[in-house]
Amino acid sequence: MTALRRLPALALLAALLAAVFAHAPAAHASTSQEVTFEAPRDLFDPAQRESAFGEIDALGAHALRIVLYWKDVAPDADSRVKPKADMTDPSVYDWSRYQPVLDEAKARGWTVQVTASGPVPRWATNGALDNVTRPSPNEFRMFMTALSKHFGSEVTRWSIWNEPNHPDFLQPQYDSRKRPASPKIYRGLYAAALRGLAAAGDTRPVLMGETAPTGTGKDVAPLTFLRGALCLSDSYKKVGRCDRLRVDGYAHHAYTNKAGPLYVSPGPNNVMIGTLSRLTSALDKAAKAGVVKKGLGIYLTEFGIQSVPDPIVGVSLAKQSDYRSFAERTAYYNPRVKSFSQYLLRDDLPREGPKEQKYSGFESGLRDADGKAKPSLDSFRLPLAAKFTGSSTKVQLWGLARPAKGVTKVTIQQASNGTSFTTLRTVTTNSHGYWTSSATRGTSKRAWRVKWTDPSGKTWTGPATHAMGK
Description:
Distance between the termini: 34 Å
CATH class of the largest domain: Alpha Beta
Structural class: alpha/beta
Strand content: 15-25%
Number of domains: 2
Number of strands: 15
CATH topology of the largest domain: TIM Barrel
Oligomer: single chain
């Protein structure tokens, strides 16, 4: 205090304000950013459903994304011949796989996003050759009417198609001249969905997109897809005679690779979590062209970090924890992001075959395939990201206590050698559990973790994390 007394009055005031706000949560346009969980393996298994709901609830996530595959519920889905029935009538369909999950989510008062997607019934495609090639917009319109009539009261918002820029869900991706074909097909399906929902009197929000993060010779890159679906040229100028569609938000799957959440994908039309600003910029340009509203929200409806034992894209368990937390920090600091997803609760079951085939599902769970907890389980409850700043001596810390039910306190611990932790300081969160602080860089072995006592009185300790960035 003696040093403070020697400061002039204005400098003293500035110093006091700095002291007050040094560890306050950073300003953010949406400090209550929704965290959406997706756990199909657990929630669709009657033997696991109750415990899965309970664990997700205890982790502080009260929002679900459910991908509802048209083929799963449609009558005679593998037939080339369409059944003679009123396809806008919900009683024509078999909803039994999805009914218990939506009923339980409704009983708990959770937010539910239903993604209506292909694969589709074979009779609903052009030529009836498979379950993904050129689905009929008119048939999809009728399906969306039936879907809304049946589940509408249990749904918070709709999203149209899972990864329509990926050939597993929509074909063809390219025409015979190697030009993107899926954006135009998707636009027809999206417009049909809007008509089908309107026929049911449904005014719930509808998301466009759900795009996969990268383009290849088989997948259309997400920004190329976005422009095509919105009738925009590569320079974001309107092309063709396309009416403006109602778009209440844009959904995307901003996965990254083994390089982590700071990886910058070289393809300019790819959007991973490390290049999320590309999507924000693209939507801004689309708004300027008049095809979507200004400031359109972004919904990261599928995200996860794959870990070992995946031999191709899997990272270590410690890196999975660090990368997932840092990615959530990235989403938090983008004010356009309205929701951020965790995919999965448990890893997919191993498959038959060599190691590359055995782990060709998703190993992005907070638990392994057998249910054993990974470090990411604790870091989901207490995400902590440490980021190098421009300063040569400082590291910025960001975190969340979940589920906080108001302002609370967390204790930050630090270890110079990565293992022997001592208390650095205690900080106060905002009303949603978010907090920020800072620390000194130290050596590359320096690590941090967080301890928190939840509203029930139980104390949790998050895993160690190391700083990332430059």
